[in-house]
Fold this protein.
Amino acid sequence: MPRRTGAVVLAAIPLAVLVVFFLYPVAGMLDRGLRPDGHLDLGGVLDVLTRPRVHRVLWFTVWSAGLATALAVLLGVPVAFVLHRLRFRGQGLLRAVVVLPFVLPTVVVGVAFRQLIAQGGLLGGLDLDGTPVAILGALVFFNVGVVVRTVGALWEGLDHRAEEAAAALGATPRQVFTTVTLPALLPGIVSAASVVFLFCSTAFGVVLTLGGLRYANVETEIYLLTTQELDLTSAAALSILQLLVITVLLAGSHRARRGAVPHAHTAAARRPRRGDAGLVLLTAAVVGFLLTPMVSLVVASLRDQGGWSLQHYRDLQGDGEGNALLVTATTGLTHSLLVAVQAASFALLLGVLVAFLVSRRPRSPGAERLRALFDGVFMLPLGVSAVTLGFGFLITLDRPPLDLRTSPLLVPIAQAMVALPLVVRTVAPVLSSIDPRQREAAASLGAGPLRVLRDVDLPLAWRSLLAATGFAFAVSLGEFGATSFLARDDHPTLPVVIFRLISHPGEANFGMATAASVVLAVATTSVMLLVERLRVSSVGAF
Amino acid sequence: MRTRLITASALLLAGALALTACGSEEKKADQKVDQKPGKTLVVATHDSWAMDKKVMADFTAKTGITVKIQAQGDAGQLTNKLVLTKDEPIADAVFGIDNTFASRAIDEGVLSTYEPTLPATAKQFELQGEDAGSLTPVDYGDVCVNIDDTWFTKKGITPPKTLDDLASPTYKGLFVTPGATTSSPGLAFLLTTVAAYGDDWPSYWKKLVANDVKVDAGWTDAYTVDFTAGGGNGSKPIVLSYSSSPPFTVPKGGTEPTTSALLDTCFRQVEYAGVLRGAKNPKGAQLFIDFMLTREFQQALPDNMFVYPVDTTVPLPAGWDTWAKTATKPYTVDPAEVTEHRSDWLREWRDITTG
């Protein structure tokens, strides 16, 4: 009983934050759409779902996300093997590179991608611009890292004695893989696939930039309906559909994860052998694919007036051609770092509470269901339209005591909501891998709960806490969707500065935008490299 | 055991509260400023807002009011945000609602009336009828098709001149435009075709699509990535932009721009300012609108926002009179008609271009 009271109190804090900063704003926005004249208009909602255009949008969402997920899995699993089961120099850098796209702002990647595939670009000859292939490429670019990290984390902890036994009994390597390894990895693959599908079906920036207007998914459609047509009923109908699908996906991913028992030990990685050549080559190709847009960005940032120059970087101290910015780009960077510190601390504080609660082993099926629900609810922000959330903030948090629209904490809070699921997913596996008997032993020796936390949990979990903080910091640095709705222009973050620069005319502004993007990418990579050094495999895994 | 756990959670709660407390203190400081009436003025604008810091400082020196600029997306998003938040307005004044969204803002009751004395030449830009009392014209611009003259000279192809030319096979695959559903200039171009072809505009767009027009999401994409002279490595020498774009393509050390605007393809956009209904600082908002009509502010408009001042007696920057001329006969559509048909037009346009 006392334990339960404690858990309820602990659960109340993150839940309250989630309600105020996520559920309430989203509900406020849906309410506007469902009750346009003060009374419920379900007919209007159902009517939206019968429009041919909506069917086209839904169909595109499903097939583009499905295909991108399949590709990400096909490429990600071999890369996971090379980066997590083999051991070689420079592996840490490669692992950081693989997650990097995930933390880069979509606005930067969108422009980098388009420069690459536009007819004059490096890959212009392939004629991919404006085709679904370009969208698929970008979706895979963003998400292959999620598969690599998730599957890799599982693979690293996999007990390889079963594989060795199968091999000793005469199984060929292929048989070992299909009968022993693959079934063991399957929960991780399914979990990663459902999260990737979720990310792909809610992708916004890349679809808008790369799809031109020929291709729209549910997310871009909600954006257009809300911001341009003010058709809140249609937007609400699609948002509800989106929420339903996300709930199903999260439930699926949860079920899959339940099959995967995390192992505390890390299996010994081996050096690459000749037989691995194919996989190593494939990994090299994938890393090359991930690096190409970034390299083209670096090149663009160093080109000025047909020659090589650092001019665009020097320009960052100013406010752009034609006063494009209200503050200098360097001020934007400083502000980004400050916001990232606040957002990361916020996400860590809440994330640790949630992770602590979801990693307890429940005693009854009822408590287990409650725990699963609690876990799932905090994943919801991953899949809800940033437009709906952003507008929701505007219309719900507008009067005392919650008049937060002008508060400087609004951006860090919103970013913390985005980073929270990632913190939970990094810390929770480590906490649940701690043998409860260790805690019981400590308690029976007279240690109080705090002492147990300090002497048992903390020594085992501190690396994952640090890694989660770093990851949240990196995510915050690159966050653009929610931030662009909430950031004030006198206090912009660097991605907002970059967006302003590319939307103002002048070659100097475009050059500055590429330079600022490189600075941002370098900052995020450095943070991710530090995180990588902590060797916490659950970072970026789901 | 129980007390310890409660202590632990109390500590965490205290931590969380401390965080919120920091926030609310800053908040209080904000409110204190607000309570002295009129010392700060929040102005909601579109993303293209840019202004000399000196000009803004002069306003503060003159009135004692500090202006906080809050950009809210493009003209459409700005208007829609104001409509959504009209019960608790997010600002005191608005700048950047254009003639394609003016009626929506006025019909939704977002604005209160304010009628300052306009410079004599600005009268022509006023809204018609009683709407004139809600929004004050500040600047205007022409959305026109731009071409890369260098490209056409190099290829030895005669450059296009008219809207009809864009649908001709000579220019197949050479034209890129931002979309009408996702961008203000894109919407302006759709209205150009509505004004030029009347009810036949869908068949013109079908011809454009058959001629491989490229439709991008935003102006940035179209100009900086796809246009041959926009800084990227684009491949389309014809782009939808503004009549004020060419001066920005004067190469370093050169004296002439490499691009020009087709003045027979222009739509006139007028941008307005207004006082928001329910503003906390309505007096400050009025003073700021007055300030936007002064010669100082009007003169700074071209260099900062690439638009033309409504006070046409104000001198333009060097080069603008030759290379950034405005259209003599721009296309226009009555704002009320735009509001009435916008959804239908956009839906039909979208079906044609995304079909």
Chain A has 22 helices and two strands. The beta strands of chain A are 303-304, 307-308. Chain A touches chain B through 73 residues (CB under 8 Å). The CA atoms of residues 92 and 272 of chain A lie 15 Å apart.
